[in-house]
């Protein structure tokens, strides 16, 4: 009898954890990190005690939600880095990263805050930096990317575009695509920007 009861408790615990993760994934995607954990527990159909047994803090819950997304992000980075045309790979990397931010509105805040001390996040960030540096080097070698643009510059542009994703989500959810085009046009070699901001006159 005790064994049967223990098995049922384990099944219930697994089900509750899955329901919490599903509810949290939806909530963080739709409302960002500001969402109240009480809303997540209510949507999952569990009590606060159950939530805290599985995830003692909101940060713990967010890390559990974000880590699968980071794995997917690493995979798309590898595909982009493997593209023979480095510029196309770079474009794919930027656009796919922003599409992930559209689906997961909290990811930008998470990478800059609560998720920083996650080993999975740290490993993903290192992998992303290495892959992006490789893409940038190849794009320079193929003459597709402005010589004065670094991998760090690309990363900062992605973060800036991520903010556009956030602030226009309700009023113009596709605005980020237009602004991404502006940024990519400015990064491409020969697109009209002069290194060092020199003002040329005829």
From TrEMBL:
GO terms for molecular function: DNA-binding transcription factor activity; transcription cis-regulatory region binding. Residues 36-55 bind DNA. Keywords: DNA-binding, Transcription, Transcription regulation. PROSITE patterns: HTH_TETR_2. Residues 14-73 form the HTH tetR-type domain. The keyword Lyase does not apply. This is TetR/AcrR family transcriptional regulator. It comes from Streptomyces hainanensis.
């Amino acid at each position: 009898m005790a064994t049967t009861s223990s098995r049922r408790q384990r099944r219930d615990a697994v089900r509750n954890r899955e329901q919490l993760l599903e509810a949290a994934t939806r909530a963080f995607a739709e409302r960002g990190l500001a969402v109240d954990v009480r809303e997540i527990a209510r949507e999952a159909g569990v009590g606060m005690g159950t939530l805290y047994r599985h995830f003692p803090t909101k940060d713990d819950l967010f890390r559990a939600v974000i880590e699968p997304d980071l794995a997917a992000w690493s995979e798309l980075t590898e595909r982009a880095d493997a593209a023979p045309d480095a510029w196309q790979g770079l474009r794919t990397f930027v656009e796919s990263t922003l599409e992930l931010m559209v689906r997961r509105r909290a990811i930008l805040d998470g990478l800059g805050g609560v998720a920083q001390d996650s080993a999975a996040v740290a490993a993903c960030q290192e992998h992303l930096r290495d892959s992006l540096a490789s893409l940038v080097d190849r794009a320079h070698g193929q003459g597709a990317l402005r010589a004065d643009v670094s991998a760090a510059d690309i990363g900062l542009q992605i973060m800036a575009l991520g903010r556009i994703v956030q602030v226009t989500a309700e009023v113009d959810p596709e605005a980020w695509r237009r602004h991404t085009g502006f940024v990519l046009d400015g990064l491409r070699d020969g697109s009209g920007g002069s290194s060092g901001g020199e003002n040329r006159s005829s």
